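User: Second chain of the day. Same drill as before.
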Amino acid sequence: MKETGLGEIAAVFLRLGTTAFGGPAAHVAMMRDEVVRRRGWLTDAELLDLLSAANLIPGPNSTELAIHVGWARRRWPGLAVAGLSFILPAALITAALAWAYVRFGALPETGRLLWGVKPVILAVVVQAIVGLAPHAARTVPLRLLGIAAAAAAALGAHELVVLLGAGLLVAAARAVRSRRAGPGADLPALGPLLPAAAGAAGLSAIGTVTLPATFWLFCRTGAVLFGSGYVLVAFLRTDLVERLGWLTEAQLLDAVAAGQVTPGPVFTTATFVGWLLAGPAGAAAATAGIFLPAFVFVALSAPFVPRLRASQTAGAFLDGVNVASVALMAVVTARLAPAALVDLRTALLGVLAAIFLVRYRTGSVVLVLGGAAAGLIIGP
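Assistant: Same format as last time:
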């Protein structure tokens, strides 16, 4: 395999970090477009294994997937370059919003831009699901499991329960068929991470706002948090509003809104909060704190992913997690659709984006920029 240059890795993930709106499912879809469809760095099956590994460790899943891709291409240098390149643009944009918020007392209006971006993102995610599903649901039992996982997620089951349940079910079935040991016998990779995450939660008490306190509070959060950005909101509200009183409810909601309307990882909400607490230095401390555990956990788990795939039982576990991951993407997409397709014009934008994706293989980044331009020109 030809070695990928660090400059190329940086260029890809800087571009994604600047244009990847829409949350983790959209980020995964855009990464697939860049690293599977357009560059052939990975196969769909390899990307699914990395996505499953990212889903099973704490932290921002799409950022961890970027770090995994960097590791797969250039090991330690690639891990650092891919992760930092994906995070940096979003953090800088969020910091600019925080400066404007402190200076003018309100967030800039982004409604018109997002009006055009959302239907394009929806088309990109659907195209990714269609591409990934045949690799994840290769057999009838896996297809049925995918349907069951989607139903469980739609009914409110926790994402981690769905992923682990699907993986353990397929691993157990494989172990029974092969008359081998139980499903946990050769899954060494991720077990040590959970005690590490739990240990990080036991950091010393935090009181007044200082840079070390800001860093450790967000580091603790990044080390134990599974799930979506909404789970992040719950963690931050408990710590920053209720326990410490560092923010008001209104400030926290504005910080969350800033993380939602900017491209890249939603965890850059921490950048906004850090700026409110201690200016640029606070933003840097909070950003470093919340993303550092992702680099650590990926560094610990990435070397084991090929070993997991090589083992029959562990490979079956990954098969179950893979199909559940695609099912979760489908559920998220179904929930996003009503907010993205709000009228005939947005529906047409989505259809046009799908045509350009499938017929002309137009890059997702170009389409997102086109959607943003359309929103600014013809949006409500």
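The two ends are 48 Å apart (CA to CA).

User: Great, on to the next one.
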